[in-house]
Amino acid sequence: MRIANPIYDVVFKYLMEDRESAVLLLSEIIGEEIVELNFHPQESTAEFSGRNRCITVYRLDFAARIRLKEGGYRKVIIEIQKAKFSTDIMRFRRYLGEQYRNRENVYHDEDGNRKALPIISIYFLGHRLRGTDRAVIKVQREYYDGITGEKLSCREEFIESLTYDSFVVQIPSLQQPYRSRLEQLLSIFDQHRKVSDHILEINEEDYPEEYRRLVRRLIRAAAEKQVMDTMDAEDDILEELENMERSIEKHKKKLEEKDKQLDEKDRKLDEQERIIAELKKRLKSSE
């Protein structure tokens, strides 16, 4: 059975626009039950390389209501960002700053006071991290006494509003055998199943019934002409970006080589000046 490759922005967005699919995927990743989810797509359109071509860039934001294990609920902002290149880290930082500045990311307590919503960030990476090959990394805050080192069980609104939990999914590290339900679900991103850049081959029966909604959504995406055409456009633009990066890297190497040559000339001049100064000193002492 063939599905559209969700590593592509257009396919990922198509998948996450289905509310039930989004709730299931996000709940499994953060390990908490989401009972309410509102989708707020953030998109911008930019002209590429001064040509009559545009690319629409999406980042996905959700306002979620989570059922707490100890009872009660809490509201959070869930921000999803997806990157194919390690250089996207600066974009991640910029988007996170925008979330903290957004005056709409608040809720009202029982007394009507405005409170900042906590933020949970989920990063889907199309490249490997240098220090670990783990497929899913959970970065969770803990409180400690700075004097004694004692772990604290309390949670403070001030701290919760200024720090955040995050989850990192390294797509290249997803591979069989899948060791957990979450890894089984995320296998819809497994690039080892590619039959082409755009298509993955999977067996729907390998998935629990509750996960098959996501599989079927991706099957439909593969049949959508507009989705497939946009994947082609993504390929073209990424190829041009890669060509630009190679050209820039080549230019940087040339500049570095010139700098080395100049440094070598400076070193030789310094050496010549030292020798001349030494000869002058000897001549003066022999007079």
UniProtKB/TrEMBL annotation:
Superkingdom of source: Bacteria
Coiled-coil positions: 234-282
Keywords from the UniProt entry: Coiled coil
Protein name, entry field: PD-(D/E)XK nuclease family transposase
Native source organism of the sequence: Candidatus Electrothrix aestuarii
